[in-house]
Design a protein that fits this description.
This protein is of the alpha/beta class. It has two domains: 282 residues, Ribonuclease Z/Hydroxyacylglutathione hydrolase-like (Metallo-beta-lactamase, Chain A), CATH 3.60.15; 53 residues, no CATH class. The protein is built from ten helices and 17 strands. An eight-stranded mixed β-sheet has the order 6-5-4-3-2-1-16-17. Strands 7-8-9-12-13-14-15 form a seven-stranded mixed β-sheet, covered by helices on one side. β8 and β9 form a beta hairpin. It is globular and about 70 Å long.
Length: 352
């Protein structure tokens, strides 16, 4: 199953010819999700051959213009192109009022169903779930209400080893319980451990997006062990005081969070327009967290599928059939083994 991210905009508040304002397309479990929508996002969607009508859900991190001002125009373009499908937007409180006001003063309207859901939480919370994945929002430390997001696949069912069904004369119900993680209990009471019946599990992949934020160690438990962590890197460390004043991160600070969180890979983004070349930011971050890359407009990054190397049977009581449970709060998750991320297009790793 594909799980990849297309960066539409990797710049900060002031767009440049090389870097547009923040926006990403997340493709997870065949769902196409827009993440932030700075100005010119709809142009970037066309530039990189993305079908705007395939977007069913939009997540807005905060209402600063470089993350939000492209949304009203995109919504009206969807209408002008004949959209009929429903669209859901998750955004901090105030987005609904802003869009309604813009539509009113511009005499604009849309004919498709639009639902805008307020994000208002002071701790990690699952705000969206769909076929095969869920999205958790968590607060960031910025100059206005701002949220990060973790996109996480649901744990997949286990696969049975060849011939075990016939070997133990398993029923359909037996097979389902074993695929869900239970032991097999035979008619004579013999317990067959789950790991003897199933192949190694495919590990759920996780992607975290944090933009914009000041340095804040409280997010570390939330993003711990994610496959890919996308963090803003507005400044280099010579501007650390300015970064703190404006509630942004330096490359070194972003790398410090990645290292402490034990993530698989760090993707830097949201670069100040003062940097014509971002190589110094990359070098600064890699000195602390070597597995760092820099986002570029048009860069596409795929999270590879990994399987567990070994499995310990989770059923302490063999007489109980237990399904694999999902934690509701990401801060309770144990860090997973780091997994490798590879860019689909290696050329996309260099600045435009």
């Amino acid at each position: 199953m594909d799980f990849n991210i297309l960066v539409l905009g990797s710049g900060a508040a002031t767009p440049t010819f090389a870097r547009h304002c923040s926006a990403q397309m997340v493709n997870i479990c065949s769902s196409h999700i827009l993440l932030d929508c700075g100005e010119a996002t709809q142009t970037q969607l066309r530039q990189y051959h993305q079908r705007i009508q395939s977007i069913k859900t939009i997540f807005i991190s905060h209402l600063h213009g470089d993350h939000f001002f492209g949304l009203p125009g995109l919504l009206t373009t969807m209408h002008l192109c004949g959209r009929q499908d429903a669209l859901t937007v998750y955004a901090p409180t105030g987005a609904r009022e802003a869009i309604n006001l813009l539509f009113e003063v511009s005499a604009s309207h849309i004919d498709y169903p639009l639902t805008i859901i307020d994000i208002d939480t002071d701790q990690p919370a699952v705000i969206h779930s769909d076929n095969g994945f869920k999205v958790t929002a968590f607060p960031l430390r910025h100059s206005m209400p701002t949220y990060g997001f973790v996109f996480e696949e649901d744990p997949p069912l286990l696969n049975l080893k060849p011939n075990v069904r016939n070997l133990y004369n398993m029923t359909n119900d037996d097979c389902l319980r074993v695929k869900q993680g239970a032991n097999l209990i035979l008619a004579d009471g013999t317990v067959i451990p789950n790991e003897q019946l199933t192949l190694p599990r495919r590990l759920p992949r996780r992607y975290a997006y944090c933009c914009d934020t000041a340095f804040d160690e409280s997010i570390i438990p939330v993003v711990s062990g994610v496959d890919l962590l996308c963090l803003e890197s507005t400044f280099d460390n010579s501007f650390v005081q300015l970064a703190e004043e404006r509630c942004h991160l330096t490359a070194a600070q972003a790398a410090t969070i990645a290292a402490q969180a034990g993530v698989g890979q760090l993707l830097l983004t949201h670069f100040s327009a003062r940097y014509r070349e971002i190589e110094p930011l990359l070098i600064e971050a890699q000195a602390i967290f070597p597995n760092t890359i820099c986002a570029s407009d048009g860069g596409r990054y795929e999270l590879e599928t990994k399987t567990e190397k070994f499995r310990i049977n989770s059923n302490e009581n063999p007489n109980e059939d237990e399904n694999i449970s999902e934690p509701e709060n990401l801060s309770t998750l144990n860090p997973s083994n780091p997994k490798t991320l590879r860019p689909l297009n290696p050329e996309s790793l260099t600045p435009n």
